[in-house]
Amino acid sequence: MKILAIKSSGDRTGISLLLNDEINSFTMDHDRKDRPNWDVFLDYIGHKKIFNLSEIDLFAFENNQNSFTATRVTASYLKGIATALKKPLILIEDDAEDNLNVEELAIIAKEKFLSTEDADKRFDPKNVNPTFKEDTKFRKLNEWYIIEFYFSL
After folding, report:
1. From the CA atom positions of the chain, what is the Rg in Å?
2. pTM of this prediction?
3. Alpha-carbon distance 4 to 14, whole Å?
């Protein structure tokens, strides 16, 4: 089984390729506002040399609570690929106490996928969305207020 897993915590991003029992991974520190160049990450783990994305059986990402934006970027990237290739996508919950590395993420994704009944249906990419456990305290603005403000200009 071939699994591609990505973990991003905002200022550190890692990618891991699990090929049966062998793992190839790459992790890089970056500025929090910088978003990873996914092609660079894929190249470092052998994309187009030892694997193609179409050969991946399962895509996985971590629902990281350290940076909800980084998690959404990662989820969006993998949802697009998994949907286009008609492959399953799995979300692994982040437990701050565990602080998984990207290699462990790929192994846990494989175990969870193989132990789940109807895994292909259950891990349909359109149903896999990151969540943020902490209350963000954002509030929706009143649309009428925005419209009134716009027309008062």
Report:
1. 18
2. 0.81
3. 11
